[in-house]
């Protein structure tokens, strides 16, 4: 009798998973509710989706690590506020962990369910909580729509795509394809942005963060010469994304995501992509300097990598 061997499925790499999910453009919403003391609370979300027409059900998902999870669990309902492209500042405000009172200076009113409804949104849906389900590292909240309203008809939706707002991402893409972003300007941007992130990472990175940077380097080194362009783009993006995550600065991470979009477009349409084993020691040096908490050394290693990328 032959032995049955079960084949293990390959592990899903988190950074690539996030990048591929970013290929699906999503709208941006601010989810609002009231806490036990009646105070307005809210957060930015792009996991909003419709569920059912009869009855009218919608959902959003919330990280279990979110400080507002107990508030939404205890609340009887929530409101979905769909942002327009003119409200991108609200998206950043309600996503920030550094702002205690997210509603300060924000125009809003109490809706039919006494839930906070933000003014001038494209659409708003006030919901009673229909169900809440645990799902991995998130909880999924399903709401039954009780009141809804529309906003200015001439406004366009704020769209998130590949780690950046679509309007910005599309503008950058056109600049790259038209050759209007010069090599010197791009190199300077990378040196300054990722140099700052490396200095922060030298102070703030956890061991897990540094392991992620090293894993990204290992992924690049494991590519065979026949690796596809898509694989090389994903691994190069993953390396810089891991550095950005290790810096633990939300604003700089958003800027880094935009620069990653530039890198992807240049690798896909502008520059010649080929195996570069000569760069392996340079990336390894960055990791080594980070593990030593040597900020100056890490930045110097980055500068050497960028120089070699351009001249090699």
How much of the sequence is in beta strands?
15-25%
Shape: elongated
What name does CATH use for the topology of the largest domain? Four Helix Bundle (Hemerythrin (Met), subunit A)
Cα separation of the termini: 57 Å
* Number of strand segments: 12
CATH superfamily of the largest domain: GntR ligand-binding domain-like
Number of domains: 2
Residues in helix, %: 40-55%
Structural class by secondary-structure content:
alpha+beta
How is the main sheet built?
7 strands, antiparallel
- Counting DSSP H or I runs of 4 or more residues, the number of helices is 10
Question: Which segments are poorly predicted (pLDDT under 50) over 5 or more consecutive residues?
Answer: none
Provide the CATH architecture of the largest domain: Up-down Bundle
CATH class of the largest domain: Mainly Alpha
Sheet with the most strands: spatial strand order = 3-2-6-9-10-5-4
Order of helices and strands: HEEEEEHEHEEEEEEHHHHHHH
Please state the average pLDDT score: 89
What radius of gyration results from the CA coordinates? 22 Å
Would you give an account of this structure?
The chain is α+β, with helices and mostly antiparallel strands and 312 residues long. Helix content is 45%, strand content 22%. It has a 7-stranded antiparallel sheet with strand order 3-2-6-9-10-5-4. The longest helix has 22 residues, at 183-204. The mean pLDDT is 89.
Task: Give a brief description.
The chain has ten helices and twelve strands.
């Amino acid at each position: 009798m032959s032995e049955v061997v079960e084949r293990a499925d390959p592990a899903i790499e988190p950074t690539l998973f996030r990048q591929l999910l970013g290929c699906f453009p999503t709208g941006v919403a601010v989810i609002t509710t009231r806490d036990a003391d009646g105070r307005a609370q809210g957060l930015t979300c792009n996991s909003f989706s419709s569920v059912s027409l009869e009855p009218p059900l919608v959902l959003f998902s919330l990280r279990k690590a979110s400080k507002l999870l107990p508030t939404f669990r205890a609340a009887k309902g929530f409101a979905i506020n769909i942002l327009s492209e003119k409200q991108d500042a609200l998206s950043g405000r309600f996503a920030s962990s550094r702002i205690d009172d997210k509603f300060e200076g924000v125009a809003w009113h109490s809706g039919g369910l006494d839930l906070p409804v933000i003014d001038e949104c494209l659409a708003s849906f006030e919901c009673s909580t229909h169900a809440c389900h645990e799902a991995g590292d998130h909880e999924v909240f399903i709401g039954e729509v009780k009141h809804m309203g529309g906003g200015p008809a001439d406004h366009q939706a704020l769209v998130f795509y590949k780690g950046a707002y679509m309007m910005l991402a599309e503008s950058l893409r056109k600049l790259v394809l038209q050759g209007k972003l010069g090599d010197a300007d791009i190199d300077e941007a990378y040196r300054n942005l990722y140099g700052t992130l490396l200095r922060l990472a030298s102070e703030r990175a956890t061991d897990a963060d540094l392991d992620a940077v090293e894993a990204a380097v290992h992924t690049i080194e494991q590519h065979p010469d026949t690796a596809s362009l898509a694989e090389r783009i994903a691994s190069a993006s993953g390396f810089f994304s891991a550095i950005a995550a290790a810096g633990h600065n939300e604003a700089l991470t958003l800027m880094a995501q935009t620069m990653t979009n530039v890198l992807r477009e240049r690798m896909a349409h502008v520059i010649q992509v080929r195996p570069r084993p000569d760069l392996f020691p340079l990336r390894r040096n960055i990791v080594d300097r980070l593990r030593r908490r040597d900020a100056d050394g890490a930045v110097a290693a980055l500068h050497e990598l960028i120089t070699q990328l351009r001249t090699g």
